[in-house]
Amino acid sequence: QVQLVESGGGLVQAGGSLRLACAASGRTFSRYAMGWFRQAPGKEREFVAAISGSGGDTYYADSVKGRFTISRDNAKNTAYLQMNSLKPDDTALYHCAADHSWSSYYYTTAAYEYDYWGQGTQVTVSS
Fold first, then answer.
1. How far apart are alpha carbons 63 and 74 in whole angstroms?
2. What are phi and psi of 28, to 5 degrees?
3. Over the stretch 2-55, which tens digit does the pLDDT of each residue have?
4. Residue 28 contacts by C-beta under 8 Å, 6 or more apart in sequence?
5. Do the Cβ atoms of 97 and 35 come closer than 8 Å?
6. Is 71 left (phi over 0), alpha (psi -120 to 50) or beta?
7. Which residues lie across from 20 on neighbouring strands?
């Protein structure tokens, strides 16, 4: 079992930055690919970014590419999402998710592949 707790959300003006963190329980964090997803009111859940267990492979949605950076610190059991140049369209509840894999190079953009989910942290970007 893995428990995920997100933090770092808040209210920010357009053009500003936030850094989300996802703290995971357990001793095998490096065996999990991590992903960030978001869901705005009235919209479907949307993939944002993913990172492999080793941290060496990352993938981004086109909507955030060049503005967001996903990273992880396996020694601290924590994944991060650095969000720069925020736009009002980035307003959503952001969730992190973990997907167990024996490959340190594996990551996925598919929400149904992820085994564990956090409760989410709210990001609101004002214009």
1. 27
2. -125, 40
3. 999 999 999 999 999 999 999 999 879 999 999 999 999 999 999 999 999 999
4. none
5. yes
6. beta
7. 81
Give the strand pairing for 46-51 and 32-39.
antiparallel
- Digit-coded pLDDT (tens) for 45-68: 999 999 999 999 999 999 999 999
Q: Which residues have C-beta within 8 Å of that of residue 31, sequence separation ≥ 6?
A: 53, 100, 101, 102
Long-range contacts of 17-20 (CB under 8 A, 24+ apart): 17/82, 17/83, 17/84, 17/85, 17/86, 18/83, 18/86, 18/123, 19/80, 19/81, 19/82, 19/83, 20/80, 20/81, 20/83, 20/94, 20/96, 20/121, 20/123
d(CA 108, CA 106): 7
Cα-based distances in Å from 5 to 1, 43, 78, 89, 103: 13, 23, 9, 24, 24
